[in-house]
């Protein structure tokens, strides 16, 4: 091998392979090149990873923090609401929500509650008893609704003035001096909500809604023919549906009972027992309180079914900004001074508008229902029947078809299928609450 180094130039020209071999011998061994390439590659990869990982970490960390903050905000909001409004007592655990609904109170003895106090006003531990039912105000039942509808078919209005709430609502006076409240809305679904909520109350035999009927703004009809100028001033459009409700006198504001305020927020037989032990209330006051609470039990079910936004949910929602709002009069709820009847006013958000906003407000709708365990027996029986038959949509639509003229049906749609579906789901939910209470609080 050393002889190649002594070749002369001419020899090299004759032996070019020798030159190649000589040059080859002068180059570094191949393994040294591989090591260099590997080192450069490893450095580049390491540098890249060293830069990218922190960037990805901080980016992901920010995203995770943002997600966590948003999640915590929603969870905390829900927790705050639950903490405020589900701060209850008396040893009942809601297994479906894993929160303590009724922590035990030592001075309450179940056996004693069953034998005295509560049994005077309750039947089987969960239903209002005969003593309370007998004192409930008569309210507005089927016959009064029929009389009102028949009256409007012949009525002649002579005056239209501001009143009966906000916006374009008006107080109407008829020829014989009777009065009514007219609900006019640009959105047809609010008229539907008012009307079908009224129909639902009749199906449930809840007598706390004033008689109502649908009419059409028609300047050629006897009802409206005297009011051209007033209707123009009210900016009503012709051929629009309106709801005409009987005007109710002697109305006072109605407050939320203490048992439904944040420090309590539940009603079961142990609450009734405790109320009977209040030394400041005589038997007459106790009975009046029970009669009002019996109407509230219907109100809670009715507003849950319709997803009414304009009554108690209004107070619950605004509690986060105004802690005193629960002491203020309930929104769209009044009490007749001459009969103690609670009147459920302005139900236009029910069944349509309220259903569209369930994602935002369902927690407020559920608060009272989840903790209501005393019911009117008649209401519970109807809920169970509706649950079994699943025919609430048919019942509501039949009422609409039978009670309204072709002219009304041309401009006002019936209840949509989507609303019927949601209403059936909410009937199921009320049914579950009733059966749950039966299993927990029933004496039998």
TrEMBL record:
Superkingdom of origin organism: Eukaryota
A GO biological-process term? cell-cell signaling
Keywords (alphabetical) are: Membrane, Transmembrane, Transmembrane helix
Q: Which Gene Ontology cellular-component terms appear in the entry?
A: extracellular space
Q: Which residues cross the membrane?
A: 34-58
Q: Which InterPro entries match?
A: FJX1/FJ (IPR024868)
Q: What is this protein called?
A: Uncharacterized protein
Which organism was this protein described from? Answer: Rhynchophorus ferrugineus
